[in-house]
Amino acid sequence: MTVKDNGAQPNDAYRIRIEPSQGWVSLKLRELVEYRELLYFLVWRDVKVRYKQTILGVGWAIIQPFFTMVVFSIFFGRLAKMPSDGVPYPIFSYAALVPWTFFANGLNNASNSLVSGANLIRKVYFPRLAMPVATVLSGVIDFVLSFIMLLGMMLYYRIIPTANILWLPFLLMLALVTSLGVSLWLSAMNVQFRDVHYIIPFLTQFWLFATPIAYPSSLLSEPWRTLYGINPMVGVVEGFRWALLGTNTAPGPIVIVSSAAAILLLVSGALYFRRMEKTFADVI
User: Fold this and answer.
1) Facing residues of 283 across strands?
2) 183, exposed or middle or buried, with CB in 10 Å at 0-12, 13-18, 19+?
3) pTM (predicted TM-score)
4) Looking at the DSSP assignment, which residues form a beta bridge with residue 275?
5) Under 8 Å between Cβ of 128 and 206
6) Is the dihedral of CA 208, 114, 271, 193 positive or negative?
7) With contact defined as beta carbons under 8 Å apart, do 111 and 190 qualify?
8) Which residues in the chain belong to E strands, given as ranges?
9) Pairing state of beta strands 16-19 and 2-5?
10) How far is residue 277's CA from residue 127's CA, in Å, rounded to a whole number?
11) What does the pLDDT look like over 169-204, one tens digit per residue?
């Protein structure tokens, strides 16, 4: 937003013209810090709305990846005899589904956050960036619940994590950055093009099978395996398996490529979001 003085004389009424910013604008991340209480409120609002008037409540955070693991274990593990890097297939797939579910739910919910919060956007000013950020962050609670289930499965299969588990916070951050980066692009586009809402389920399904969840990335030889890391979730999934299950397929180069791709998604998504932000209240 720019403010212009029309050059009024001392005896004239002082008038200010407010105009939208032109071209690319700064991210103004300091506003998120200033509105941190609002961000906290939006996170808890999303959590409460998600499980309000549900029978199983937060149990859905465990049921969704667990039953997907059951289906994968039957069709890919037992029938297709898919390799699993030397670990039992059920925990092989579930260890990948835990971060994937966090990413996919954040993507699906955050991409529609602006449209669903249209009334709030029209009435008051606040950094619009807070809405998709809060929606993605609210998924951390679901992640913790499903991760506890993963620890229980590791205990059942007598798998003891190594010191590589110290990399988990970084890998979770990589999943969060990827989810938020894509969500910023899609949420801003969804305001202007409502058919984006119909593309998101297809995109999520395609991305699921483009990520080594039902199969290991070790099926690819180098350099294709490293290039596969252009999909940021490849580094996340393979990193989780390596850190928790002790697989021999250390994803070092993959994680580097995935991290670079995730950062590019986040920065470009944030810039595009801020560029389109000035039209949200008018279009939505």
Assistant:
1) none
2) buried
3) 0.86
4) none
5) no
6) positive
7) yes
8) 2-5, 16-19
9) antiparallel
10) 9
11) 999 999 999 999 999 999 999 988 888 888 999 999
